[in-house]
Here is the input.
Amino acid sequence: MLLIPTRRRTWAPREHTPIITYNYRHDRISALAALTVSPTRQHLGFYLRFQPRNFQATDVADFLRAFLQHLRGDIILRWDRGSIHRGPAIEAVCQAHPRLQIKEFPAYAPELNPTEQVWNDFKRHTANSVLRDTRHLRHRLSANTRRVRRSQAKLRSFFSSSQLPSPP
Here is the structure.
């Protein structure tokens, strides 16, 4: 997530286009997320991690280990074919946790990934706003995270907006 504002359409009087001034800074916060579906209770969950630098495979492995501590039973994880999802660190997590199965989405198929809908939702809720610094961006992302986690309907919408079958 960048500090550069996302532009969206807005309602404004004709010929009074809103103007948003901002500092053109490329500061960012990297985010890693997982949506979960419980097969027994049909409960949806949302797990998220932020950090100031780009994620690498070792960071993803740490996220997976923390994620596995929160969930019981067998886990089927679907993710894209990103380079951060490969390598010795990821293989070590898979070998240490045989209950974790990893399946990849087809190449170039973001429409299948419900997590992409999370990022669209976050961008929609920060559109046309000026974020002063990464602290302000992190505050907005945390508020969005709380909003999304509280709503089973919102979490279901991420699945229904993707081209995956919706959870029961």
Observations:
- The beta strands are 30-37, 44-51, 75-79, 100-104.
- The first helix runs from residue 57 to 70.
- The mean pLDDT is 84.
- The two ends are 31 Å apart (CA to CA).
